[in-house]
Predict the structure.
Amino acid sequence: MISQPSRHCTVELQALPSRICQVRRIISAQLRYWHLDPLIDQAALGVTELLTNVHRHARPDKTCTVDVELLLDRLTVSVHDRDPRLPTVCEADASATHGRGLALIAAVSESWGVRPRGEAGKVVWFTLPASSPAGTLRAYPASAVYGATTTGPFTDSPRIVIDSSAKPRSAVAG
């Protein structure tokens, strides 16, 4: 079996509208470089929503880090900010101009979640399935990995539970 190394990209920024557009372009270019063109729209939408949440809600400042990691057959995009308050999914009415970001992420991603980091803030992440050339990746069962049962990406010892009978799409892990 041929193993594929992890691919990783990190961007540190102030979550300002002009920077959010730049990060979308960086993520899109990185995914093209990795030959993951089919994931560009979903990843760009997801990172835009996460960075917009940082811009609108994070305190004490808008400093954050975007991590994009391709590991085996899964692309994980995460945003770490310094605000320890955890986001909540809102049910926005039809005329609302905001409040749908996490619901959009849940709709376009395979899984998503939040990982509190105490006084260091939090990480909000989502995953997308990444296709690859035949034979380069190990085959996994056609089950989903849910944020409800993981500590999130980028941890020293992640806990992953595969459950094909459940249908949760999001979680706060802690």
About this structure: The first strand starts at residue 7 and ends at 14. The beta strands are 7-14, 63-71, 74-81, 111-116, 122-129.
